[in-house]
Amino acid sequence: MAAGKFLMVGAGLSGAVIGRQLAEAGHQVQVLDSRDHIGGNCHTRRDPETGVLLHVYGPHIFHTDDAEVWDYVNQFARFMPYKNRVKTTARGQVFSLPVNLHTINQFFGKTMRPDEAQAFITTEQADTSIEDPQSFEEQALRFVGRDLYEAFFKGYTVKQWGMSPTQLPASILKRLPLRFNYDDNYFFHKYQGMPEQGYSEMITRILDHPGISVMLETDFSREQTRDYDHVFYSGPLDGYFDYELGRLGYRTLDFEKFTYEGDYQGCAVMNYGDLAVPYTRITEHKHFAPWERHEASVCYREFSRNAEPGDIPYYPIRQLEEKALLAEYVALAEATPGVSFVGRLGTYRYLDMDVTIREALDVARGFLAAKASAAPIPAFWSAPL
Ligand code: FAD
Ligand code: UDP
To answer: Choosing from 113, 175, 222, 305, which is the catalytic residue?
Structure first.
């Protein structure tokens, strides 16, 4: 196959990984990003005053069951062991998350063993009349019961999503486990860790290839597609079409940064379950790198609200209304030759980093195979609906 010239819109994980794979196959890759840094939403940088490594767009913990993805990231960064242990403040006390035996015993003032706690939740708390939970609230009532739901999930979810848990799908809560032992690891994946010098350093290495050029502070415009053999677009799907059908709904985040001399909260992530507290959580960034020593500390209070034009899109809302609009944009995208829509914004899905990398590797492989056999190149490699 003759060398091609390809454009990656976005220097996040999607653009970097696809770009790297195509460059390694001998092609010329141009990566561009409107921001003044690479890394997309995984971007990390050192705070100039304290030297603390900041997760600029919110806390990012790498966790996966995918051995190939784990090997992939370990080629580009040294991963330090890191377990995400989240606490929550609710009703004037600090509890352990995800809901585990410690949380249950503390909350109900008991000293139950695992089987006793399981029997207690199933027979005295869970609403077993709900057979097939559809909403977030039904899922919570069915599996943990009203008391734990109202303390830990109801207020937090209203703050996070700006709507009642009765309107949200059960799938959002299914991301969190319920444990009848003292395991307080937030994730249950086989591999978990933190790149020693941050995600941006890792992504800089992914982009460090003679076939790749990176251009920052440059907005993509559709005319550029003419200059390339194919475009991989990891920006917002509706943005590609200048929002001509309307805007896909997103939640955005505001981070209120503050510094503290010493240890502010003793852990990386403290959630706030009470609705009366306006923020969802506080992250204390130095605890994401426990192998480093810093006296001073940098924390972010995190507030969630609906994204307006100009805000950074964080969480796709994906309610019925958004899915109907999404279907219309998908049809437009499928009628746009020469462009593949990738990543969390290009496909309007919440994607963890490991899934983003898995999909990026698959896109690059699929693309190279299609090119080699002169097969058509799809607009989407993973169905966004
Ligand atoms: P992005 O990182 O969003 O990159 C897209 C890039 O495209 C951006 O840099 C943007 O500036 C650029 N761009 C957009 N439009 C244009 C344009 N028109 N012209 C030029 N450039 C453009 N995952 C985990 O695995 N673990 C976690 O703990 C975790 N925590 C998260 C916490 C939060 C608050 C959020 C929102 C996400 C979290 N994630 C986490 C998910 C993670 O952020 C994503 O998997 C990852 O960022 C996806 O990479 P991407 O390249 O697809 O998108
Ligand atoms: N959640 C909650 N209380 C918490 C943590 C999470 O109610 O203390 C809910 C919230 O609705 C969130 C969902 O559980 O969106 C999934 O949790 P996860 O930690 O995966 O949150 P996200 O990645 O959405 O921030």
So the answer is: 175
C-alpha 240/C-alpha 221 separation (Å) is: 8
Q: Is the pLDDT of residue 1 over 90?
A: no
> For residue 240, what are the domain limits?
5-82+192-245+318-373
pLDDT band at 2 (very low <50, low <70, confident <90, very high): confident
217 lines ligand 1 (CB under 6 A): no
* pLDDT reading at 7 higher than 90: yes
Which residue minimizes the CA distance to atom 7 of ligand 1? 10
Is 175 noted as a catalytic residue in this protein? yes
Q: What is the mean pLDDT of residues 336-354?
A: 97
CB within 8 Å of 318: residues ≥ 6 apart? 326, 348, 349
Q: End of a domain among 146, 174, 202?
A: 174
Question: Exposure string (b/e) for 198-233, b if CB count within 10 Å is 16 or more?
Answer: bbbbbbbbbbeeebbebeeeeebeeeebeebbbbbb
Measured CA to CA, the distance from residue 345 to residue 341 in angstroms comes to: 8
Question: Cα(173)–Cα(170) distance, rounded to whole angstroms?
Answer: 6
Catalytic (active site) residue 281: yes
pTM of the predicted protein model: 0.97
Q: Which of 13, 35, 42, 279 to mutate to test the pocket of ligand 1 (most atoms within 8 A of CB)?
A: 42
Give 221-243 pLDDT, tens digit per residue: 999 999 999 999 999 999 999 99
pLDDT cut 90: percent of the chain above it: 97
Kindly state whether residue 279 falls inside one of the protein's structural domains. Answer: no
Residue where one domain finishes, among candidates 111, 144, 174: 174
